[in-house]
Design goal:
By secondary structure, this protein is α/β, with parallel strands linked by helices. It has ten helices and eight strands. The strands form two sheets. It has a six-stranded parallel beta sheet. A two-stranded antiparallel ribbon has the order 2-3. Strand 6, helix 9 and strand 7 form a beta-alpha-beta unit.
Length: 253
């Protein structure tokens, strides 16, 4: 996408973008239950699970019963499906065991849950955005706890605003939540780039608000997509900064 005006803001997702799932806590719990799994195995299973989950989250998605209905990212159904998609590649498929692990997950570290580890590149990425004179913000589908997570990880200090779906009453991919963020940033849609980890929620959601978007793809599991892909936050920010010049001077986003 060629920009008609210079970039003025880079806006990020929180969970699985600026903040990682606590793979270590999951691996520890599974090992305590007798499953021989490593941190690396849990991480790879989760990265693959995102792609598998995505088909349930976009416009026209089908429920398990076959009806057309996009699933909320914050619903118990979505969280349960996501956990199942993580556990299956790890060899955990028995229903009683999956339910016990789901019960543990629902009670873990409330109200924050498992997304409580800053991505190793998050602070540097945010510093680069701010150092370039751009607005840095967050739009997150959350349960009202995303601000506390970002404060606890030290990332909130590098952000100009934080939009939590539970607070504003609308969640991605609805374009209204992106427009709320654009208003907070004081920029037009073609002056901002969104960075997230889910194609249907983050990329299509941003596009519905006429914003460009970058999809995080650490291992190449998303395959060919009609959007820029970045292996990490540093690369995502570089893509955004490369697009800061008006059309005709860079192919950018």
């Amino acid at each position: 996408m060629r920009r008609s005006r210079p970039l003025r803001a880079i806006i990020f997702d929180a969970g699985n973008t600026l903040v990682r799932m606590n793979y270590g806590a999951i691996a520890e719990q599974l090992r305590a239950r007798g499953h021989r799994v490593s941190f690396a195995a849990v991480e790879e299973a989760e990265l693959r699970a995102r792609v598998r989950l995505d088909v349930h989250l976009g416009p026209g998605a089908r429920t398990d019963s076959g009806t057309m209905e996009r699933a909320s990212t914050e619903s118990r159904t979505t969280h349960g499906r996501y956990l199942r998609y993580i556990l299956e590649p790890l060899g955990i498929t028995g229903e009683p065991e999956i339910e016990e692990i789901a019960r543990w997950r629902r009670g873990y570290n409330l109200p924050v849950g498992l997304w409580n580890v800053a991505d190793p590149g998050a602070e540097a990425a945010l510093r680069r955005v701010k150092g370039a004179g751009l607005v840095a913000g967050v739009i997150s589908n959350s349960n009202g706890s995303v601000r506390s997570i970002l404060e606890a990880t030290g990332l909130a200090a590098h952000l100009d605003f934080i939009i939590d779906s539970a607070v504003v009453g609308v969640e991605k991919p609805d374009p209204r939540i992106f427009r709320i963020a654009l208003a907070e940033a004081g920029v037009a849609p073609d002056e901002a780039v969104y960075v997230g980890d889910l194609y249907s929620v983050d990329v299509l959601g941003a596009r519905s608000a006429e914003m460009a978007a970058v999809l995080l793809d650490p291992r190449g599991f998303w395959g060919e997509r009609d959007c820029p892909l970045a292996p990490d936050l540093a690369a995502a920010v570089r893509l955004g900064l490369d697009a800061r010049r008006p059309a005709g001077r860079t192919s950018g986003l």
